[in-house]
Amino acid sequence: MAATDIARQVGEGCRTVPLAGHVGFDSLPDQLVNKSVSQGFCFNILCVGETGLGKSTLMDTLFNTKFEGEPATHTQPGVQLRSSTYDLQESNVGLKLTIVSTVGFGDQINKEDSYKPIVEFIDAQFEAYLQEELKIRRILHTYHDSRIHACLYFIAPTGHSLKSLDLVTMKKLDSKVNIIPIIAKSDAVSKSELTKFKIKITSELVSNGVQIYQFPTDDESVAEINGTMNAHLPFAVIGSTEELKIGNKMMKARQYPWGTVQVENEAHCDFVKLREMLIRVNMEDLREQTHSRHYELYRRCKLEEMGFKDTDPDSKPFSLQETYEAKRNEFLGELQKKEEEMRQMFVQRVKEKEAELKEAEKELHEKFDRLKKLHQDEKKKLEDKKKSLDDEVNAFKQRKTAAELLQSQGPQAGGSQTLKRDKEKKN
């Protein structure tokens, strides 16, 4: 019997029975809390927005500390993601906080591909977690989860509408991360303009099909407050680490010539609402949504690309082993096919090379024959020329001999004539 069938029968045969007395498993929540507190928590925030919208300042204000970081410039050639991890402690609860900022976002003339480095970074964190899950020896309880749990998208306080860059980026990210849109530096616009701006942003997000994070309302303990806060999205926030004395208290505020804007005054901005929803009420839900929704979607698509499926063509459940075997056989078949193709290609290449070599050998033989004939012709010409030169030398030698003979005969004939004349004179 298959393991899936056994599991199904076990689930169908579950009954509810009463207890005769106290057993003790009602302490499981306390055990879980104690274990979680001892292990600590992690939370990863992605801050997306143009340079100068106060992303770093808002993070400092949210967590009531001063995070170290270098200010970004507007001269970046492209979008870069800068990640910083901090260990925070509040009471006896430890939090490993990772803040990822998009350096240079929106600073380029061509903003067409500005969202790509962000998408690649989020996918890289999903891939790292998936690779850890697929290991034979996993250490997920000590593995530092770097998946992005919340994306704070900073919108410039223009008071008009969303930029096309904002819409495109949020559309690309909404299936990968929990997006919480916020209007940065909201003290730059008036109350009436801010209300209209929020309505305009919400309308544009809906009309363009952008899915932002909705605070959960299925839990009765937080359903009312979350439902109310969903109506306030996007939050209009102000960040400041400067403390001013207002009345008898020191409060975070921004001082202007016309007055003071209090960061934690809900009549001035939505900072308190953002902090309540992000950290104090829904942090665990953001972590859960990241794992159960966004990561599961990435994992499912990735495994389907690898050939793993839950059911066969007949809608019958597949076991992992069957899927692995089917994929392995498919891979071996493809490997053999490629091996045969490579062998055929190799044989074809060898034949082509042999033909090229034969053609080259034939050309070399023809060239050798031409050179040999040319050499023979040149040799014959030289032999003929040598023979002609030998004949000329012999003729020259004969003429020279004749001339020498004539020269030797000339003096003898002259001497005899002189003796004859002398005898005639004496007589």
Automatic annotation (TrEMBL):
- Compartmental location: Cell projection; Cytoplasm, Cytoskeleton
User: What Pfam family does this protein match (any one)?
Assistant: Septin
Polar residues: compositionally biased ranges:
406-418
Alphabetically list the UniProt keywords: Cell projection, Coiled coil, Cytoplasm, Cytoskeleton, GTP-binding, Nucleotide-binding
Disordered: where is this region?
400-427
A single GO molecular-function term is: GTP binding
Residue ranges of every copy of the Septin-type G domain listed in the record: 39-305
Entry-linked InterPro entries:
G_SEPTIN_dom (IPR030379), P-loop_NTPase (IPR027417), Septin (IPR016491)
The entry assigns this protein to a family as follows: Belongs to the TRAFAC class TrmE-Era-EngA-EngB-Septin-like GTPase superfamily. Septin GTPase family.
Functionally, this protein is described as follows:
Filament-forming cytoskeletal GTPase.
Subunit relationships = Septins polymerize into heterooligomeric protein complexes that form filaments.
The protein's name is Septin
Q: Which organism is it from?
A: Rhinolophus ferrumequinum (Greater horseshoe bat)
GN (gene name): NKRF
